[in-house]
Specification:
By secondary structure, the chain is mainly β. The chain has a single domain, classed as Metal Binding Protein, Guanine Nucleotide Exchange Factor, Chain A. Helix content is 5%, strand content 38%. It is built from 1 helix and 10 strands; from the N terminus they run E-E-E-H-E-E-E-E-E-E-E. The strands form 2 sheets. A 7-stranded mixed beta sheet has the order 6-7-8-9-4-3-10. The mean pLDDT is 91.
Length: 130
């Protein structure tokens, strides 16, 4: 599986050619604030298989996650996490085509809004995957 994507304004583009290591749904409050949504959908791609073109800026959260976004339109493109070295965590909303796989895990279920109902995968974590 290969993939490509871009930010809202098209100034930042990405490409990868490997299968995602995982497809994660995250409900942590940092992801909620960063995305403006109660859930972030993320695929993990090996860092050495990730190509980014265009100018991004980044913000490092207290949780050790560095979120990178387009300097023009602010779209979140990808993150890196101290707890997941060697992986690029791509926000699936920027992909040209959504992954043709089901989410493999969900984390921070204790932060999920009660009103949100999503068919979550069987692998669940109340906080970060351990």
């Amino acid at each position: 599986m290969s993939g490509s994507g871009s930010c809202l304004c098209g100034s930042v583009n990405l490409e990868y050619s490997s299968e995602p290591n995982f497809f994660l749904l995250c409900h942590c409050t940092d992801c909620q604030k960063a995305t403006g949504s109660p859930v972030a959908s993320i695929i993990g791609i090996p860092e050495d298989d990730f190509i980014i073109k265009g100018e991004t800026n980044s913000y490092k959260c207290e949780a050790g996650v560095t979120r990178s976004f387009c300097i023009n339109c602010g779209s979140q493109i990808f993150s890196t996490a101290e707890g997941a070295p060697g992986l690029m965590l791509i926000k699936t909303g920027v992909l040209d085509e959504q992954p043709n796989i089901d989410p493999t895990m969900v984390c921070w279920t204790d932060s999920k809004p009660n009103w949100l109902e999503i068919k979550h995968p069987d692998i669940k974590f109340e906080k970060n995957p351990g």
